[in-house]
Write a structure and sequence with these properties.
44 strands, Immunoglobulin-like, 4% helix, 4 domains, 6-stranded antiparallel β-sheet
């Protein structure tokens, strides 16, 4: 370091201290690498007893933890050129460094030096030790050297690396709808997703799957059944981010072969909160497309209706389900997860045959008189339930409509519905101001769903919710306290299913998007109560505060009750 050696001879004793003389500051204590903006480091002379400044410079560690420093920028007593902030010629200026400052010989204590850098070009290991050095002479003639260290914290945005697919253990390619991997019904599809999950090791990889309904490739949230997925372990890169490798397995079905759109999966990562601020979700996520085909006779033999026989009497159903055939299409199917109409109407197992013998008046069976024929309709349902709230249906694996027709002569005929499908105002409270809730199909909150309770939406689809007040008093602020659902307006409290509680997202598929003075917006994945097909009722409670009240209970933050 030439500056120190050059001025060492000015005094027999050169004092080195980190106590006073300079102030070293950073414009930001935390940066997210790859984001926009500028990070500025500034070194100010704060010592008043200064006659002459010989050198002021900023240095950085060559590598994090090395304790070996190199000069970034300096000003040195001499001519106009040396007293101008100058970047070191040995520094690779790949951060868009810009030097600045002022060398004030008249009033040395006004001297300062700064350097700025482009945050979008920073990487994790740029968060290393930096140092500001000052060599100056005091009125007593002694020469002092002072130095001060500083640093900042760096965080990384998540990004996806790759999505690999295997068919029955062998790698196959299926990166687009025009380059689909070929599968037969019953094949095992294994997907392995690799992602840099950012700087929070608890972040997990999430999945989307094309909807089973419709003709377009609409990707909706997918929750792999228990035992079919592995989140992997967060592995540190020893800088400021983590890598995670997650995998899921999926057995292709006859229904997949007959769908009107593509079977495709997508993996992604979403993070929010400190240090990222608002929610950040990875874009251009990798996808895997599978083209499911199979022998036509096999598809018929192993279709759902091929595994189900519907017989009835004037008073009872007699429905049998061949679990061997069901498991050829759905290998992990359990008889205990299949029910008729509502969750309490289970079948009785007799070997590999599941038998339903419920009354026609039970299990939400509907009755209709058509041309003198009594028509009874219901559904066999194989559903995935919330592991804690068993009355909540998160996802339908399949549903099959069943029908019993009783003629005027008393003849009963069982089968499947001819149309191939079975029939299966928002109350909020506030003592002070009116509060409303509206539901939307899209993230832009443009296309509204219905005009009141109950909410009808496809299970697993995103529902965007706006909770707002029509009050015109802008001196008050609304904070959403609680939002929950019930199967009916007057259902008992034990049927409450909370989405937001005490300002917290308590459901993993619920995310608060934004808050303003008079509105809060959030999104959740639609679900259904197992004993009701008539939609769900949503209720929200809000607290109103004076706009000047920033106490904890009046901020739209998570305040769990402990």
């Amino acid at each position: 370091m030439t500056g120190f050696l050059k001025y060492f001879s000015l005094c027999v004793v050169l004092f080195v201290t980190q106590v006073s003389g300079i102030q070293f500051t950073f414009s930001r204590g935390k940066v997210v690498t790859g984001s926009n903006g500028t990070l500025t480091m500034r070194c100010d002379v704060t010592e008043n007893d200064v006659v002459t400044i010989y050198l002021i410079q900023m240095r950085r560690e060559t590598t994090p933890g090395s304790n070996i420093f190199e000069t970034l920028v300096q000003m040195e007593k001499g001519d106009a050129a040396s007293e101008t902030p100058t970047l070191s010629e040995t520094i690779n200026n790949n951060k868009d460094f810009v030097a600045g400052g002022s060398f004030d010989e008249t009033t040395p204590s006004n001297t300062y030096l700064l350097v700025s850098m482009n945050i979008s070009k920073l990487v994790c290991n740029d968060a290393r030790a930096y140092m500001c050095d000052l060599i100056y002479k005091r009125t007593t003639g002694s020469v002092l050297s002072v130095e001060k260290n500083g640093t900042f914290s760096a965080y990384a945005y998540p990004h996806m690396t790759q999505l690999e697919g295997k068919r029955n253990g062998f790698i196959v390619q299926g990166s687009s709808s025009s380059d689909q991997a070929a599968f037969d019904v019953g094949d095992e599809l294994e997907l392995t997703c690799t992602a840099n999950i950012g700087s929070l090791p608890a972040t997990t990889i999430r999945w989307r799957k094309t909807s089973e309904k419709g003709t377009m490739d609409d990707f909706i949230e997918y929750h792999p059944p228990a035992g079919t997925f592995d989140q992997g372990t967060a592995i540190s890169d020893n800088q400021c981010s983590y890598t995670r490798i997650a995998s899921i397995t999926y057995n292709t079905t006859a229904a997949d072969a007959n769908r009107d759109n593509n079977l495709a999966f997508e993996c992604y990562v979403s993070v929010s909160g400190n240090p990222y601020g608002t929610t950040y979700t990875t874009q251009n996520n990798p996808r895997f497309y599978a083209d499911i085909s199979g022998d036509a006779q096999a598809n018929r033999d192993y279709s759902l209706k091929g595994a189900i026989q519907v017989v009835c009497t004037n008073y009872h159903w007699y429905i049998t389900v061949d679990m061997n055939k069901i498991r050829h299409v759905y290998p992990t199917a359990k008889a205990s997860d299949i029910y008729l109409g509502e969750n309490k109407c289970k079948g009785v197992e007799n070997g590999d045959i599941l038998i339903f013998q419920q009354d026609l008046s039970e299990c939400l069976t509907s009755e209709l008189l058509v041309d003198g024929i009594e028509v009874y309709n219901n559904e066999l349902i194989y559903a995935e339930h919330d592991p804690v709230y068993l009355f909540i249906v998160l996802h339908y694996n399949w549903t099959v409509g069943v029908e019993c027709d009783i003629g005027q002569n008393g003849t009963a005929i069982g089968g499947f519905p001819s149309n191939a499908t079975s029939t299966i105002a928002h109350n909020v409270s506030s003592p002070q101001y009116p509060v409303s809730v509206s539901f939307y199909k899209d993230q832009d909150f443009i296309h509204e769903i219905g005009k009141g309770n109950p909410l009808h939406a496809e299970i697993g689809s995103h529902v965007y919710v706006k909770v707002f007040t029509t009050a015109t008093d802008w001196n008050i602020r609304m904070r959403v306290h609680t939002c929950y659902t019930k199967p009916t307006e007057h259902a008992h409290d034990h049927m409450k299913y909370f989405l937001i509680k005490d300002g917290c997202e308590v459901n993993t598929n619920t995310h608060i998007i934004s808050q303003s003075t008079h509105a809060t917006r959030f999104v959740f994945d639609s679900f259904e109560y197992s004993n009701s097909h008539e939609g769900i009722y949503m209720f929200c409670d809000a607290l109103f505060c004076d706009s000047s009240d920033w106490s904890a209970q009046c901020r739209q933050t998570c305040n769990p009750v402990t």
